[in-house]
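Problem 3 from the worked examples.
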Amino acid sequence: QLQLVESGGGLVQPGGSLRLSCAASGFTLDYYSIGWFRQAPGKEREGVSCISSTGGTRNYADSVKGRFTISRDNAKNTVYLQMNSLKSEDTAAYYCAARRGMLCVSLSRSDEYNYWGQGTQVTVSS
């Protein structure tokens, strides 16, 4: 069964850090670009970051640029999202998604992703 599983979410104070993980099972991520998306209650889903299959290209939404870092370890079949300097507006459910294709696409093109995880909640609050 093809599956993506996110982990690492939780409650953190403003200014704190979290590292999200996205682990794949049932398939190898080697030929997939991976995106992280988030959705807050009452808001549309937002593309956060994307990494190409080799890790050579990493794109970020303006809202997280300089604070978040995406990385991948293909040997572990896992992609990470390191989130630093968290703000209350980062509060959302975070999802990873895999797209068949080596290159990143626009972060607005969530429809191009083939597999999605179930999400992990990130809450930034004092």
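Problem 4, a separate protein:
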Amino acid sequence: VQLIESGGGSVQAGGSLTLSCAASGLTFSVYVMGWFRQSPGKEREFVAAIHRDGRRTIFTDSLKGRFTISRDNVKNMVYLQTNTLKPEDTAVYYCAAHLATLAAAVPQTASVYDYWGQGTRVTVSS
């Protein structure tokens, strides 16, 4: 299984980036997909997740309204649209896949995710 993130970079505060994650080696449509991030000196934190059919999404409260998550089950891709970026959004962003045992589950806990990408770095300057 491979999850490969792309789309990170350096932007000024207020800018936007679209992060992409390309998945291979798994039956993508049965996996919940999540995005997490980790800033220097901090623990990895949940950003957003999307149900395997794309109909249900969950975000960490502080990011609601600025970030959106979507997926394409034909292309085996998941996306994180990040808007109105702030310096505190600076982090390495990771894509993760979880094979849910419950049909409606969209977990926010990193430890339950089965596969992880290597991350893409986002740097937001003020």
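Solution to problem 4. The longest strand covers residues 91-99. The chain has a mean pLDDT of 95.
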